[in-house]
């Protein structure tokens, strides 16, 4: 649709250029008489109007090349054309002014109709192109917003995933520190090592040992004074002597006890 609007702008530029040159040549009386046209009075007004039309023609041609100005300039040029056509039809058909010959009046009316149709068509096309451009801009903006939102959601999900992984790794490390991992074998139960508690044993009561009784007249195989054994040093002999004295004292104390067992009487 935009290429069609550019073609309309090129036609508008050619028409505006032609009318601008015609009004710029207002002082050329013979030309106006040959074309059966009414000369503009004063000539200065006609030439000023011609310069304005030539400038508008250049703007229309530039807008047909530059896509950013196409819809705006086509709308302005279209309004100028159809308003000019309406004015021409009102003055020529309604007021019959200026008084033209039959051929000149037909040419002027046809020119007014062409300007009216071309101007309204340009306005409609420019409106359609403008609405389409707005729709494309809205879609691009929505797509850009969607991309930004998707990027934000992806970053948020990545951050949450990283936080969950970090929390899981922390919990796993803490569990591994609390309890060692025992590898489980398929088909066999898993046994866990339990602390061994030793049963409490009652305190043993010390019972004094009763002296061994031996029958009278029996010979003892152990020496009476082990400290006199040959081959011992002086310190060893003194220690053995002290041990033997301590045993004798303990034996005598046990024998003097009232409940101590007595040796059998031999008659």
From TrEMBL:
Biased composition (Low complexity): 156-172
Membrane in keyword set: yes
Positions with biased composition (Basic and acidic residues): 237-251
Identification of the protein by name: Transmembrane protein
Keyword ATP-binding found: no
Biological source species: Paraburkholderia kirstenboschensis
Key words of the record: Membrane, Transmembrane, Transmembrane helix
Chain intervals for the UniProt region annotation (Disordered): 151-180, 212-267
Record field: transmembrane: 7-31, 43-61, 73-94, 106-125
């Amino acid at each position: 649709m935009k290429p069609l609007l550019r073609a309309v702008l090129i036609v508008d530029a050619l028409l505006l250029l032609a009318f601008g040159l015609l009004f710029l040549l207002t002082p050329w009386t013979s030309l106006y008489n040959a074309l059966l046209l009414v000369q503009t009075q004063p000539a200065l007004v006609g030439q000023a109007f011609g310069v304005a039309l030539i400038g508008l023609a250049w703007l229309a041609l530039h807008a047909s090349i530059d896509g950013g100005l196409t819809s705006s300039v086509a709308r302005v040029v279209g309004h100028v054309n159809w308003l000019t056509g309406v004015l021409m039809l009102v003055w020529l058909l309604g007021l019959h002014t200026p008084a033209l010959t039959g051929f000149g009046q037909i040419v002027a009316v046809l020119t007014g109709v062409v300007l009216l149709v071309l101007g309204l068509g340009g306005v409609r096309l420019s409106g359609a192109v403008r609405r389409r451009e707005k729709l494309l801009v809205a879609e691009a903006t929505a797509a850009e917003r969607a991309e930004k939102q998707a990027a934000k959601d992806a970053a948020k999900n990545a951050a949450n995933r990283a936080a969950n992984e970090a929390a899981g790794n922390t919990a796993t490390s803490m569990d591994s520190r609390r309890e060692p991992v025992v590898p489980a074998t398929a088909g066999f139960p898993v046994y866990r090592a339990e602390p061994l508690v030793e049963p409490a044993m009652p305190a043993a009561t010390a019972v004094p040992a009763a002296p061994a009784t031996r029958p009278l007249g029996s010979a003892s195989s152990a020496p009476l004074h082990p400290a006199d054994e040959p081959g011992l040093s002086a310190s060893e002999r003194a220690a053995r002597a002290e041990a033997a004295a301590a045993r004798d004292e303990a034996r005598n104390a046990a024998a003097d006890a009232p409940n101590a067992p007595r040796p059998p009487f031999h008659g």
